[in-house]
């Protein structure tokens, strides 16, 4: 259960910081997912509602994937190159990073680093150390948007719960709980979802567009990736690899890999699912899912300081060719699974 009162000292620091700030940056790690973009847009709406005199900008390392462009305020999300076209300077008084640490924010990290006041809002149990000015982190929250919602109802923000705001929060809830299937789903999260639905937004559309809708290339990419799946450790590990050449073959985009690991994970007898995605420039994104016997957040952190997440769902970024990453991660994961 999220208890926002535990963050009263941090919220007071945030209140004082905002009173001295005019230009606000909001960002998140890497390519946005449903929880991170929902949290960013909801936070932007909170700030603009409570402090209309401030300039608030959402800037990510990559442009918003097509699946999320239906969301309210989606048109306000920039990448560094599109932000520069506005004529605005990349100079801010306060910067927020949500749903993961700033270490994975790519090109926006340098902007964040030089901002005098930095704020971290997250629900992941493990993330990279950074000297944030304000930390609002609660692993008991089912999603970062759940935490943002409770923050929105504090005396600092007093945000009205209307349909546009509600669907931004709701997307994060359904994304990180897998439509309330995952073990991080709490009674409080489901009650919150029910309260949000009372505002009357089209929750079917939000769920289908934000979670399920795919391009034809995405379907073919998924089929190819699943066809390459192999098992290890007596069937306790299932793994596959998604390369840049596969993306090009199906005219797909990186966001099209979303959901593939869940299909791997839901294989009978599997303890841990592993998907390695080639990002390019000898960088590999590692995604992990666990039935619970293996803490994949701890495992991801053991691979690199750029690893972390939840006990049952985690990831890491490795700086090495995908062949080397596959061999190394499988060897280490097999040892952990064998000992579990």
What does this protein look like?
- By secondary structure, the protein is an alpha/beta fold.
- The chain folds into 2 domains: 4-211, inorganic pyrophosphatase (n-terminal core), CATH 3.90.1640; 216-339, Diaminopimelate Epimerase, Chain A, domain 1 (Roll), CATH 3.10.310.30.
- Helices cover 39% and strands 19% of the residues.
- It has 13 helices and 12 strands.
- The strands form 2 sheets. Strands 3-2-1-4-5-6 form a 6-stranded parallel β-sheet. A 6-stranded mixed β-sheet has the order 7-8-9-10-12-11.
- A hairpin with a 3-residue loop joins strand 11 (307-309) and strand 12 (313-319).
- Helix 2 runs antiparallel to helix 6 and helix 5 (144-152) packs antiparallel against helix 6 (163-177).
- The longest helix has 18 residues, at 322-339.
- The model has no long low-confidence stretch (mean pLDDT 94).
Q: Which secondary structure elements does this structure contain, and how are they paired or packed?
A:
Blueprint: H1 8-19, E1 23-27, H2 34-50, E2 55-59, E3 77-78, H3 80-84, E4 94-98, H4 109-113, E5 117-122, E6 134-137, H5 144-152, H6 163-177, H7 187-197, H8 203-212, H9 216-227, E7 230-232, E8 237-242, H10 244-249, H11 260-265, E9 272-280, E10 283-290, H12 296-303, E11 307-309, E12 313-319, H13 322-339
Parallel strand pairs: 1-2, 1-4, 2-3, 4-5, 5-6, 8-9
Antiparallel strand pairs: 7-8, 9-10, 10-12, 11-12
Helix pairs in contact: 2-5, 2-6, 5-6, 6-7, 6-8
């Amino acid at each position: 259960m999220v208890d926002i009162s535990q963050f009263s000292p941090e919220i007071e620091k945030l209140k004082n910081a905002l009173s001295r700030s005019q230009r606000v940056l909001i960002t998140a790690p890497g390519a946005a997912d449903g929880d991170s973009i929902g949290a960013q847009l909801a936070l932007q709406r909170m700030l603009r509602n409570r402090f209309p005199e401030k300039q608030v900008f959402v800037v990510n390392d990559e442009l918003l994937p097509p699946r999320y462009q239906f969301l309210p305020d989606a048109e306000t999300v920039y990448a560094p190159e599109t932000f520069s076209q506005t004529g605005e300077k990349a100079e801010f008084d306060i910067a927020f990073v949500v749903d993961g640490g700033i270490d994975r924010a790519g090109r926006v990290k340098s902007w964040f680093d030089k901002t005098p006041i930095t704020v971290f809002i997250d629900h992941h149990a493990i993330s990279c150390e950074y000297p944030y000015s304000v930390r609002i982190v609660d692993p008991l929250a089912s999603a970062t948007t759940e935490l943002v919602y409770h923050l929105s109802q504090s005396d600092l923000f007093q945000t009205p719960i209307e349909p546009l705001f509600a669907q931004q929060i709701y997307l994060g809830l359904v994304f990180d709980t897998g439509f309330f299937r995952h073990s991080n789903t709490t009674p409080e999260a489901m009650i919150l979802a029910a309260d949000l639905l009372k505002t009357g937004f089209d929750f079917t559309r939000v769920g289908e567009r934000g979670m399920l809708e795919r391009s034809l290339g995405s379907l073919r990419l998924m089929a190819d990736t699943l066809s390459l799946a192999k098992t290890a450790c007596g069937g306790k590990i299932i793994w596959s690899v998604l390369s840049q050449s596969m993306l090009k073959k199906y005219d797909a985009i990186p966001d099209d890999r979303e959901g593939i690991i869940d299909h791997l994970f839901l294989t009978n007898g599997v303890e841990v699912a592993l998907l390695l995605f080639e990002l390019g420039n000898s960088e590999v994104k590692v995604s992990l899912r666990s039935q619970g016997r293996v803490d994949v957040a701890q495992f991801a952190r053991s691979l690199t300081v750029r690893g972390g997440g939840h006990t049952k769902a985690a990831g890491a970024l490795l700086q090495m060719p995908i062949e080397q990453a596959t061999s190394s991660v499988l060897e280490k994961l097999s040892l952990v699974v064998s000992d579990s």
